[in-house]
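Entry 14. Structure prediction run on the chain below.
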Amino acid sequence: MEQERLQRLMGSRSDGHWELFATAVGNGTSVRRTLEGLSSVALVANVGGPAISPSIVEQRVQALAAFDTQRLADLSREWKDPSELSLDLMDASVDFWTSAWRSSLRFLVLGGEVPKLEGLLPLPLEIEKDVLLEAEELELNTWDDLTHHVRDTATYSDLRALDRAKVSVDRPVTRARLVEFLGGESPSTEALERLRVLQHRTVFLDSSAQDYLGKLLLSEWEAAEELDNTGALTILMDVALECSNANGLRPRLVRALTQRLRASVEPARWAPFAYLLAGTNWRCP
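Output returned:
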């Protein structure tokens, strides 16, 4: 019920940044506008056309993928080949193409639609390729192995690269072990980012650990009246909603998000949370 109300709210407007929300739930007008803004013609025109800016390109990619990853894959086949992109920092069009390809790549890889990524590439796209396709395929056989490896990682990209690792645990992860992993009962933003390694792996957590994540999410959400950095909270929500006890969280979070959307003058910042709570295809990068 609450999820359906959120979907209706997201699809009720298609102006400005509301286009993103409406695209994510399949509003026809918004989907057409998004596809136009991500077309080859728009990306070639860059600042002079409907693509508007590289950041808008990225946001539109996320919204379209939330709605239909196959539409994104079909669209990407019409784009300029990544290996043909210029490395000239003064070429504005490269920023648009790089944004489109970099933000699309994780969805394309998941769908088996990997573009040709040969030769020298713009650095942001090269980094994304390395994370998704070329990271070492580690084997981590215990929770302690995973914990030690995560603590030795330098960047969020290193955490994402562990998607390619073969991870198992020797016994279920309890609340106490998860709290230790996060460095305490009230984790820092950096510590919350470690939860990214649990995406698609919440089966490792026992009920006490899953309950802790749910309570931590509610606590962090209540404290986030003014969000300077939504990334860590988005990761926490993504993982907590994957847990088997998440059904009790959703209605409360949907109601809270709906209130914030109605009051916000900058709704785009809440888009990732809306995508997660509305049950779209979107997951944290």
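The two ends are 28 Å apart (CA to CA).
Filed with the rest of this week's runs.
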